[in-house]
Amino acid sequence: MENEHSQCNANSLPSSFVEGKQKIEDEGNHGNDDTRLFILSTLAGQHRPRVSCALCKETLDVFDRYPLVDGTFFLSPRQHTSSAVEVKVEGRTQYLTCVCMGCLERCDPERTIRCRFCGQKWDGSSLVLGTMYSYDIFMATPCCAERLKCNTCYKPLLHPHQRLNYSDYSHPVTCPHCRVLDAHFVKPLGYCFTKRAFPLFQQWP
Q: Which residues belong to any copy of the Headcase middle domain (predicted)?
């Protein structure tokens, strides 16, 4: 999965973070120093030496060098968990969120989450550990038509076969039906996923 990164400073990210596109793999697992400083300064400002996984709630230590955490950070326009930290990106509110390595790599069946609508398992094993993604990693690969609907009128925004860049699913778009501007593809985790194999339409967790 590709990652977008660039320069970060304090609790506000400059436009180059959003505009500069580059594979984080180009720098190996060392990541970007400005990204590191952004994460550390954000957490220090909140007096948080540790973070919690958005899925299993496990407490994770944050280190001052890469890899920063035994998992990965990401930014989302939606606050998936109360432990997510509010930041500003290009004047827009985002939430710095963490997922542990065990949940990313589905180390045991109890950590597996699947789409409530089609049953497909979510897989984060390809994500780079210890750094930060500039988009919502849970919403970057919608698996079925239900994930592509407007958050207001529930009409489809894309055809099922249409695909966007990973980060585009986290951007605000205007619904062509009801004209509401929202990050429509970013939905609550409990709406999209379940930890139970059956029934599929029972909410997570």
A: 11-189
